[in-house]
Amino acid sequence: MPSADPIASISWPLDGQNSMSQNALFQEMALTALFGHSQESLAQIIEKTGQPAYRATQLWEALYQQRVETLDDITALPKSFRDELKQAGYAVGLPHIQQTFHSVDGTERYLIQLADGQTVETVWMPGGDGGELGDGTEAGDEEEDEELAANDSIENCYKRATICVSSQVGCAVNCQFCFTAKLGLTRNLTAGEIAGQVAVVLNRHRVQIGRDRINLVFMGMGEPFLNYRNFMDAIRLLVKGIGIPEPRMTVSTSGIVPAILEFAREPIRPKLAISLNAPNNRIRQEVMPITKKWNVEILLSAVRQVPLRPRERVTFEYVLLGGVNDGRAHASQLAGLMAIPGLPLKVNLIVWNPGPGTEYRTPEPHVARAFQQRLRESCVPAYIRRPRGLDIYAACGQLKRTLVQIDGAAASAS
Ligand code: SF4
Question: Does residue 102 share a domain with residue 80?
Answer without folding.
Answer: no
